[in-house]
């Protein structure tokens, strides 16, 4: 499978479709099982607060994975992502209120590179705060 987006049809500044990803405590428990990361800050409210957090927080790798979905959905091919990195700036706080949290992600093409690749810069926020910094992906297009 190859990216459904053609390199020649993409311009610097092209915005990818923004998406929002809900996160509940149930989501975090399922992710813990899949990832093997059972740190209690991700599921135990009492423990999270004892170590100075405002509440249970989402796994950083989970937040990172949700954000890149904006890029993989756009390209139509997860294998098109050549490189991806972020800095974790704020945690995604997930209250136990039935609604949980929302990770809101937008992205745009920041540069056209060699070999049919582009750099996509992502912005991820939750509760009005930026949760990922320096979030960038290099993507190979058709």
Percent helix range: 10-25%
Q: What gross morphology would you assign?
A: elongated
The end-to-end distance, rounded to whole angstroms, is: 10 Å
* pLDDT averaged residue by residue: 97
Widest sheet: strand order?
1-3-4-5-2
Largest sheet: 5 strands, antiparallel
Question: In terms of structural class, how would the helical and strand content be classed?
Answer: alpha+beta
**CATH top level of the domain at 7-22 and 58-140?**
Alpha Beta
- CATH-level-2 architecture of the domain at 7-22 and 58-140: Roll
Q: Count helical runs.
A: 3
User: Mind telling me the C-alpha Rg?
Assistant: 16 Å
Strand content: 35-45%
Give the oligomer, counting copies of the same chain as homo and different chains as hetero: single chain
Fourth-tier CATH superfamily name of the domain at 7-22 and 58-140: Hotdog Thioesterase
Number-wise, the strands total 5
**CATH fold label of the domain at 7-22 and 58-140:** Thiol Ester Dehydrase, Chain A
Uncertain parts: none
**What is the N-to-C succession of helices and strands?**
EHHHEEEE
């Amino acid at each position: 499978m190859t990216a459904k987006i053609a390199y020649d049809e993409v311009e610097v500044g092209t915005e990818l479709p923004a998406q929002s990803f809900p996160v509940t405590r149930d989501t975090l428990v399922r992710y813990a099982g899949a990832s093997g990361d059972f740190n209690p800050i991700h599921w135990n409210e009492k423990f999270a607060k004892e170590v100075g957090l405002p509440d249970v927080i989402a796994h950083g790798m989970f937040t990172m994975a949700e954000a890149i979905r904006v890029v993989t959905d756009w390209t139509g091919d997860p294998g098109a992502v050549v490189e991806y990195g972020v800095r974790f700036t704020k945690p995604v706080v997930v209250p136990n209120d039935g609604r949980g949290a929302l990770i809101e992600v937008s992205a745009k093409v920041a540069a056209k590179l060699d070999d049919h690749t582009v750099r996509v810069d992502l912005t991820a926020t939750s509760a009005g705060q930026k949760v990922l910094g320096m979030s960038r992906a290099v993507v190979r297009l058709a």
